[in-house]
Amino acid sequence: MGKQYADWGDRRHPCHWEAESEDAGFWMPERSEIVTQFFTRYLFFSLAVIYFSTLDAVPPVLFSIEQLLIALGVYFVVNTWFFRQALSGVSLTRIRSAMTADLIIVTLCVIHDPNPIPPSALAFLMVLLGNGMRYGMRLFAEVLGGAFLGMAISFAFRYRLGGFDVNAGDVFFGVFWVTLALYAYILMGRIEGQRRQLDYRSRFDALTGLLNRHGLLAAADSIFDKANTGVPATVLFADLNQFKAVNDRYGHGVGDRVLAEFAQIFSESAEMGVCGRWGGDEFVAILPQRDETAIRQIYERIEARTEAWSSSNGLPMAVSLGVSHAPRDGHDLMTLLSVADIHLYQSKSQRPDVADASPFYRNLIDEPKAT
């Protein structure tokens, strides 16, 4: 929230939603990104085959050239299988498995590279950037550790079994590689922080701290999943009465204060569930299924706290509430809100006139507006 709301107290609500799963913490790639990544893998596979096929011999560490080409062929088959799996669905296990295959084959190539400064070691950076920058910091940290381990193993084999000597070029290459990898990790951390900030701003309302419309729809998609269309739930739709008159009489600063305070009341009264600001002076809560008695108790808590705050602050604030139930009234949020909206306006029409019921609204309407 901005500084102008800091003196209104802590706006962290118990009624909110955050995506939580075992796959949380990494970016979910689009299909086009998956195709691009595996195309890059095939490209580097082709370059490796061409590179090692043109050599007369490789250091006698583990494999001969023929055996190394067989290992590359196995990688091609394994990579193709991972590609087919990725097109059907992405998971952490599949990503890690493909990433491990990349690190293993690059390590083997570096071990058998006959050049004193192996150009094949640059493929570690491609594995690092290709996986880390595509899936977020969680996977970036894992692939960074894997790349460091692969580099250490490959150069240890080269120096111990391949007959290579450490020279100034090796030291420079190692320092350059480590510096570039760490620099990429730091930059990625900044990108991740900015992405999280943008994600928060896209899903949460800055004034109230509750979910905004986009966040509510995303949460509803998770709750009312197509594979679970019969999930029982209750949707509450709240609307502040005469809120436009509050803005007109007291100004938008006071109107913002009323909205922020009611958001606190609404979210705390609704207890367990998903709460958000639908727009303007409209608020929504998606709760586990509640019977009429429980709904009445929630509404009474909201009304009582709203009336108490209105009286103590001398600011008019009253609320109307509509209710709908899934799966009886619908299987998606828009349908359930339409039903709840009908019930809300039916409730409004059955209530006495708000201006007659509240002295604050009478004063709001009757008093001349200050100039």
Q: Which key phrases capture this entry?
A:
single chain; 371 residues; alpha+beta; four-stranded antiparallel β-sheet; 8% strand; elongated
Poorly predicted runs of 5 or more residues:
1-14, 19-24, 353-371
Helix proportion of residues, in percent? 55-70%
Count of alpha and pi helical runs:
13
Oligomer: single chain
Radius of gyration: 30 Å
Rough shape?
A: elongated
Largest sheet: 4 strands, antiparallel
First-residue to last-residue Cα separation: 30 Å
Beta content: 5-15%
Strand elements, count: 4
Order of helices and strands: HHHHHHHEHHEEHEHHH
Helix/strand class:
alpha+beta
Determine the mean pLDDT: 80
- Strands of the biggest beta sheet: in what spatial order? 2-3-1-4
Strand and helix map with partners:
Layout: H1 31-53, H2 65-88, H3 92-111, H4 122-135, H5 137-161, H6 168-203, H7 213-223, E1 233-240, H8 243-250, H9 252-270, E2 274-279, E3 282-288, H10 292-313, E4 319-326, H11 333-350, H12 354-357, H13 359-366
Antiparallel strand pairs: 1-3, 1-4, 2-3
Helix pairs in contact: 1-2, 2-3, 3-4, 3-5, 4-5, 4-6, 5-6, 8-9, 9-10
Structural commentary:
The chain is of the alpha+beta class. Helix content is 63%, strand content 8%. The protein has helices spanning 31-53, 65-88, 92-111, 122-135, 137-161, 168-203, 213-223, 243-250, 252-270, 292-313, 333-350, 354-357, 359-366; strands at 233-240, 274-279, 282-288, 319-326. Strands 2-3-1-4 form a four-stranded antiparallel β-sheet, with helices on both faces. The longest helix has 36 residues, at 168-203. The chain starts with 30 loop residues before the first helix and ends in a 5-residue tail after the last helix. The model is unreliable at 1-14, 19-24 and 353-371 (pLDDT under 50).
